[in-house]
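Sequence and structure are no longer studied apart. To make this concrete, we show below a single chain and its fold as tokens.
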Amino acid sequence: MSGADNVVWLGTPPFPEAARTALADTRLRANLRRATGTIRDRRLAVTDELDDWEDLRDTAAAVKRRTLRHLDRHLLRLEETVTAAGGTVHWAPDAAEANAIVTRLVQATGESEIVKVKSMATQEIGLNEALAEAGIRAYETDLAELIVQLGGDRPSHILVPAIHRGRSEIREIFRRQMGTWGRPAPEGLTDDPRDLAEAARLHLREKFLRAKVAVSGANFAAAETGTVVVVESEGNGRMCLALPETLITVMGIEKVLPSFADLDVFLRLLPRSSTGERMNPYTSLWTGVTEGDGPQNFHLVLLDNGRTATLADEVGRQALSCIRCSACLNVCPVYERTGGHAYGSVYPGPIGAVLTPQLVGVQNAASLPFASTLCGACYDACPVKIDIPEVLVHLRAKAVEAERRDRLLPTPEALAMKAAGAVLSSPRRLAAVQRLAALAARLVARDGRIGVLPGPFARWSGTRDTPAPARESLRAWWRRTREAGRTTTEGKGR
């Protein structure tokens, strides 16, 4: 499997092209602006309540850094404790192996359908599609994921996958598609949120009651005890985790924490950063299997899929600290205007722009590190203090270097930068170029402004008012006014 196959939808089409299309969709932009603005306000309100919010962020960042430094040790400990508690641990180096493991486990039960808890890891590997090829139907039970699945759509947000959909669109999707997946939508369904939620509840209930196998992701896992944690807001995940006979959890290897006590910090940070709640309505924790209570078969699939390679990068590895809260998406001016689909990955927004290129190889997602203004709002919002701007700049350098290696001839940009370096490294050359630029600008300027420039400068100057350079450079002005004045003063002193 090539690196580009590790994360589904990558680069189809590239970000600049997809963003251009998204910017023209006024309804999408209105939906995004309303939803992200609401979440931002709620998050600020609940984080301001805590006097120790910054201390919590510092602690979480330190725990993550320490864990990643000794990740191998903590993962082996997790395998040991999960196995001792009656679970089975599987190691998946890539998406293909993870899909094969889950498919074999479902087939071993004799079932042809499963229910799913919302999971970024299973989206990353394209599990639903892999199961469908094996004749197994996966039913999403998270409300937003259900909307996406029924609509034949793709998630566009880490926390709210259907953030790009309005209520009227959701109503039409339910009316049109629910019947093909199970219980149809009620007659006369309106776009009132309560009616939509009730339609989803009725549609999913029969699936919960007959399901024998469930698949989940994991928010955290404590290596000390073998405890796995899933947090959610609806309770549909709890139904999947409690009712079926077999539970299969697919977890990225970076989700492990050393001790059970570490959960205290993250379970205070995550709900406030993601949904603007003080606590998740449903926090499910389980350790292996318990006779007569919950699933009697538990399988934990530990997914690498590019994470070990990411860990080797001293700058980029901090992206593995992500707890999938989506706070960075909700404050990002680029995401708010383009939406998640433009990123071409299951991980959109700022965190996707740094995580995806590392999971699949920078050369396979070269446009994503440039999908940012580097304003730093993502770093300010991140509960585990991932310096996303730093990683973006780091990956931009890698993308440029990769392109340089693959080309026989230098790019126009590279030639321009080389010429600029030659000019800026010599005061004499810089002064000469400034004089030439001022002279040329005066010849083409109108009312102190330069129109559209020729060649490669047309795209930049065609959308901006470019002021003409001053007739006299700062260097020339300084020499004329300051140095001349100093000479006069010195003459008088003599």
In short: The chain has a mean pLDDT of 91. The CA atoms of residues 335 and 349 lie 5 Å apart.
